[in-house]
Structure formats: structure tokens, C-alpha cells
Records
---
Amino acid sequence: MPTLILARHAKAEAPAAGLSDSARALELIGRKASTLLGQVIARAGISPDLALVSPSLRTQQTWKLMAPAFGECETVTDDELYETHVSGLLEVLHGLGDAETVVVVGHEPTSSAAAAHLAGPGSDKTALQRVAHGLPTATAAVLEFDCPWSEITSRCGRLVSVLSGRDVEE
């Protein structure tokens, strides 16, 4: 059964003159939250075998800090994830082949919009309410599917949980 983890990057530095959006780095609190998010996902019994990561600095840093919580995990930087939308993310998912559990480390509003779009019957009501308000930084939506990646479409998955790494001290 394919499992998808839609993780939003952790808290990054604010936009600034002369700093491109893609070059924004994580703040200290974001680094701590990234590490904790990986640990929270692992404690939930979920271990990705493939990570698809947006090329932005903050998503790359988020994944690098999450990854030690898991065993072997192939990592692919996917340029399509930087400024994509739900349909663009679905195109990426449709090409996943045999991967069992995939984490996508990306951005808002795509992460929460995709979780809401894919969540169908049997989804956890509390998790649905959380994604309806958007995914906060260092938070992940977990969806399960009864079909292969190539057949994923609107409302075909179950949103089973929303996990957070935000419970860290400044």
C-alpha cells in the first residue's frame, strides 16, 4: 500500500533584499524542528524509502536534518517541486513506480492543498481540519492509498495523520 508523507519545510529566515527566495536558509528553531519532525515520523512507524525534495535551500536543509531518523532512503532533488501546484505534484507522483513510502519535502500552499485534494473516504477528521488551515512549517500530512502511484487521483487516499516537529524550544 503506497504511503505519502507531504512535509512542509521548517521555519526559514524572512525574505530580505538581495536574497532570492530559493536561497533562504532555516532559522535555528527550524533546524531543531526538522530534526524533531523526522523523529516524530519515525516514532509513528513510518520510514520512507524515497525522498523527493524541492531544490530550495530550506527544503534541502529540512530533509538533511530529518533523514537521520530513517534508515536507507534514496533522495532525489526534483526541480518541479519548487513552484508547483497540486496537478504538478500529481504528475510527479504518477511516475514513482515501485516506491512504497515516499516523503515529499516541499512548500505551501501545495502541501496542504494536495493533502486535501487526495483525502477521501476514511480520512481522519481531525487531520482534515488541520490541513484545511494549511500545514504549518515542520509539519507533515500522511496519506495511504489502495492503488498504485500511477492511479492516484482526487479523493482516492486516506489522510491518516498530521505530524509536527514544532514542539521545540526557541
Note: The beta strands are 3-8, 50-53, 74-77, 101-106, 139-145, 157-164.
---
Amino acid sequence: MTMYAVLVVYNKPLALSSSFQSALKEPDVQLLVADNSTDESLSNQEEARQAGAWFLSMDGNRGLSRAYNAAFDYLKTKAGDWVVLLDDDTTVPAAYWKQLRQQNPDAVLLPVVRTSEGRMISPAEMRHDIPHPAHSWDSIEHITGINSGMAIPKQVADSYRYDERLFLDFIDHQFLKDMRETGHRIRVLPADLKQDFSAERPDRATCRQRLRIQKKDLAVYYGRRSWKACFLIMKRKLRLAYQVRSLDVLWW
């Protein structure tokens, strides 16, 4: 079995990425790093080369969709079974790779992803095209999830193009929606990953920038159904207002 891992990194040294270290430990996993970093002081290309990983520089932050498309294009001519998407802030245990090796590449696989506090953030339940947290992964009727640890059959990755109008948010939900609409199966891989979910420790400036991106992405995803985008943005603002203890967030 041949597996490729695509790691999109943003302004983080590869040495500090737990998912980078995890993939390097697996002899049958070829790692491809797509670097969206704007920090020119990083030496990620040299670190990747020394570790035996392939490297793609995006020449700045071009967005997650473009990074994935560039990675998929790079892998198109290569034979393989799986393409695994990794975030730079996710802890991937060896058990994940062991379980993946036992699966046939006939469905998109979503692992169980939890925050450092133990809250499950993926998979989730999609109701009325709005993602909702699920208490248990085995009771989800309309499944969705996040990119972290998602395993995509290589033949699916070879034929898929991400919508590059989506910069960061809802790229994963759009992908899984497209999979359902084209008849591809989606299953849960019962392996737990832990994500350092930055939204749980918000910084005002970072949160404000993320909110701007989210507004644009949700406007693209929902199109004429703008009330859904407004609903989710307001939920996000209320959560941020509570976290940073300031009501001025509601006017951002």
C-alpha cells in the first residue's frame, strides 16, 4: 500500500509540527509539504528536504484550496492508494496509520478529531447544510467533518478540484458535500487524533482576521442563502465576545 500525506503549513517551523513528525515515522508514507508561510525567516524547505519530504512553496499565503490543488496536481502522476490531509497542529498517533493500512481505498475516511480538552470536533452532523457537533460518531446520519486526518482514495484526489474562491473555511464541508452528491462513500476511521484548536485560546487580532476570512468564505459557500452565512457569523461573534470578554466583537 502506498500512502501520501499532504501537510499544509503556515508560519510554523516544521520541527514544531507534530503531524510532520508523525508522518516521517511511517516508512510507507511519502510526505508532501505545501508551505503557505509568509515568514521568510523559516527554513521549512531545507527541513523538508533533509527529512526526505517533498516540498511545494506557495510563495505566500494563497489559501488552503490553492495549496490542496497544487498538492493534488503534484501527486497526479504518482501511483498510490491514499492521500491523507494533515494540519500542522494535529497529533496523529501511530494507531491511525496502522488502521488506515487495513482499509480498502473505496471511501473517504474521517478519523475522530478531538481538541486538547477532549471535545469532538469531527466527524459532525450536517443538518440543513449547517454543521452541528455530534455526541457520538456512530449515530451521525448526514456526516461531515474537518480536513485533519481525512484520508482520500488516490483516484478521487486525482480527479477533484477545490473551489479556490474558498480561502480557508468550509473547504472540508464543501469537499464532503461534493463527495455525497457524486455518490462516493464516507466512513469513520475509529482512530483518535488531537488538534491544538487555536479558537479555544483566542487572540483579538488573530480572531478579527479569521472572522474577515470566514465572512468571505461563508458568502461563497452559501451564495444566495446568505441568511445561513449571517446566522453562523453571528454565532461566531457571540462565542468570541464571551471568550475575549468584550461586546465590541459584535460590531466587527
Note: The longest helix spans residues 204-222.
---
Amino acid sequence: MKNRNTQTILFLFGIVSILELFSLIVPPESIPIRYFTKPLLLPLLILYDYQNQQNRTSFFSAFRIALIFAWLGDILLMLPNAFVPGLLAFLIMQVLYIRIFWQDCATPRKGFVFRHLWIMLLLVGYHLMIMLPVWPYLGAMQIPVSVYSIVISIMVLAAINRIGEVPNALTVTIGAVLFMVSDSLIAITKFGSDFAYSGFCVMLTYIVAQYLIVKGRNRVND
């Protein structure tokens, strides 16, 4: 029964994801469907995580609270003039992810990143590549975006640091990197130059990212 429930939830998540992505590549008249599809994505992943955990305890684990903040961020970013509250919701989610990923490691200060410090330099280079072109256009958002950029970098490093320490660490790492890519695309399109199907690319990377993070952490005790 448990396996059937999780498979049903995943099936519904797949359908909702397809509808969400489809709404981003068709004429604007169909956009209202996003007010149903986008808010459903994270609740389905939260239910999947809860149904599939091996030892069910409290529903409100630290990981699922992080997902709830992501859900709030999804909704807020759909509203006019709610970009900063949405950014704050995702910032809280990122901080919780950092705490969770760090605690996943038995010896975090001896983890993968600390054995391969070049990864930090790679992330710094990536963010400079994204931030420098849009920096003049950020205006009052320079500090909030900079803080968020630093925090999501730490989240990615915390995910990478788990490699070799816990099961499915690579899956979570790929998800974390895709999450960073999705947020980078938002920064480029909002503060720089938009491009064709940018919304589709943002949501595709975001959906896959959150799914992989949930899937990868599924066998790790909360």
C-alpha cells in the first residue's frame, strides 16, 4: 500500500509538472492554469517524502518545513510586487537545507568539499559570471540578491560535501546545482536580458532540482 501511494503521488507530480511546463510554452491565454499547477508541485513532493519515509514520526520534520517555505516562495513569486517576500521564503528554505545537509555528514569538516577546495573557487567563478553582468541593474536589490547568492552557494557546497558520506548524495548534489542554475536564470531574466522560453527553463530546472533533492534525501533519516 505504501509503495502504491508513493507511486500515485509521483504520477500526479509528473502530470502537474507537465501541465506547468506546457503552460509556459503556449500562448498567454492559457497562463491561468499556472495558478493551479505551480502551487501543487511542492505539496505533492511533501506528501511523497512523508509517505516514502521509512520511520514515520512527526510530519513537520526540518526537511519538510524547508519544502513548505519553498511552497510559500512559489506562491509569492506568482503575485505582483512580492518578489522580496518570495526571495525571503526561499532564503529560509536554503538556510534549512544547509543545516540539514551539514548534519547529514558524520564528519562534515572532513567532507568532499574540504578535500577538494577547488570546488569553492569554481562556485565563486560561476557566481561572478552571473552577477557581474546584472549588477548595474539590481539597484536596491544589490544587497538582498548578493546575500541570497552567497547562501545558495553555501547550500550547494553543503550538498556536495555529503558525497561519500551518505546514500544518494550525488542525486541531492545534482538537484542542488540545478536549483542554483534555476535561480541564476531568474536573476538573468529579471535583472538582465530575457530570452525565449526563459520561464520554461526556470521551471524545468527548478522542478527537477526539487524532485532530485527530495528523492535523494528520501533514505536519510530526518
Note: Residues 169-191 form the longest helix (23 residues).
